[in-house]
Amino acid sequence: xxxxxxxxxxxxxxxxxxxxxxxxxxxxxxxxxxxxxxxxxxxxxxxxxxxxxxxxxxxxxxxxxxxxxxxxxxxxxxxxxxxxxxxxxxxxxxxxxxxxxxxxxxxxxxxxxxxxxxxxxxxxxxxxxxxxxxxxxxxxxxxxxxxxxxxxxxxxxxxxxxxxxxxxxxxxxxxxxxxxxxxxxxxxxxxxxxxxxxxxxxxxxxxxxxxxxxxxxxxxxxxxxxxxxxxxxxxxxxxxxxxxxxxxxxxxxxxxxxxxxxxxxxxxxxxxxxxxxx
Amino acid sequence: xxxxxxxxxxxxxxxxxxxxxxxxxxxxxxxxxxxxxxxxxxxxxxxxxxxxxxxxxxxxxxxxxxxxxxxxxxxxxxxxxxxxxxxxxxxxxxxxxxxxxxxxxxxxxxxxxxxxxxxxxxxxxxxxxxxxxxxxxxxxxxxxxxxxxxxxxxxxxxxxxxxxxxxxxxxxxxxxxxxxxxxxxxxxxxxxxxxxxxxxxxxxxxxxxxxxxxxxxxxxxxxxxxxxxxxxxxxxxxxxxxxxxxxxxxxxxxxxx
Lengths: 278, 257
What we know:
The complex is a heterodimer of chains A (about 280) and B (about 260). Chain A is mostly helical and about 280 residues long. Helices cover about 75% and strands about 0% of the residues of chain A. Chain A has one domain (about 70-275): MetI-like fold (Orthogonal Bundle). Chain A is built from 14 helices and no strands. With about 260 residues, chain B is an all-alpha fold. Chain B has helices at about 5-15, 20-25, 30-60, 65-80, 80-95, 100-105, 120-130, 135-145, 150-160, 165-175, 175-190, 195-200, 210-220, 225-250. The longest helix of chain B is centred in the first third of the chain and has 32 residues, at about 30-60. Chains A and B meet through α1, α4, α5, α10 and α11 of A and α1, α3, α4, α5 and α8 of B.
């Protein structure tokens, strides 16, 4: 038995080292981004590269923040992400509640339509969506950036799955206690749905904050750009200014990394919930 | 929310001419884009899933906090956007000053223009995706592994199976539904690759990294030919649907405990 134990222990050590190596490899690019951003602006394209900044400075960050429109891009990204997340969490909770706990004619059929629309890749509807937005005169405006985002079949699906697990007796009890439809929803359902809403909110926010293709297409003037689109433009404009570019990338990455570290539990849970479809 | 269905209506309007389709199908670059998309997908999906599977298997025996630590570490790149990752990798792949050529220089490898070369451009994009990806699949596979009842492992051990055999004969078959789900979603995601290509290669050099979605973007929003672009989008949709169906058929037998 002793021999066997020793064997498993060395096995553990080996896999631990392997895992550390793989994790380091996956995180190395992010580390490299930060290191490059902290270099002296002139030092960035020196050779050989430095693994640790010998002379760290925030100069690249101040240079990035002083560029035209950077503040506006950040505000745009924040505004759009918050608006979409707010609307989605609320409407998806309501729709999910209706699908999970209410009987109404065609309910199942409409729900399957939602699921079917989830299967259609976003790129397939890109052109028609763009044409609709141009008809509505929403191009290059906040409406054009926000409206398509709030259509969230995935969120409805997620909330339905989540709310279906709540016991129906709770709703009945609320009605007996004299709650109206609206009160039941706000006082009973919403508080119980908090964990589900948190997962949905976090993932929606992340998706919007990182979204690239749609804002790229729908915006035209540089003051309407979002942060990712603005960064891509900067990359085109100054392809060799790696210090500046990496500072911009770090700036855009930090909010999400902070949110991730704060709400890690919800992230890891959300991935599993989202995938466990019937 | 109804918007997502309106493409059918729009497509009906565009139906006036099959001309769009014949135009698209006669375009050699479009076929090149289809082949490139397949190349990318065939490169990314097996490697990425293999990586996720191996890492999940390695994580599994450890205690809960350590498991969570590794899951979080592998998931971290996922919370940053594809734009940011592409920018970082452009810098890493940079021929004279990038990190990759510098490290390879120690092994006597001459600098390579990774993205500027028809031969290496696509493998470079695949490599980036495989190194950075896998985080969410690791979380999913680990969850599925934790769901496998322990008595199955005990029974296998009593029967004298070695760890590797246990993995191949017990774990892997029971993970099938999860793996199927990951293969399907991974394939669909790879079909849709756009941001990396837009930022890193613009479909070049010589169309060697032009994928279907990049071409849709280029046709619709650079050349403003909405008709052909919609035809391409329909081809993409049909291809996606076919692949999802085939994979379900191929891997989707019921799992028996």
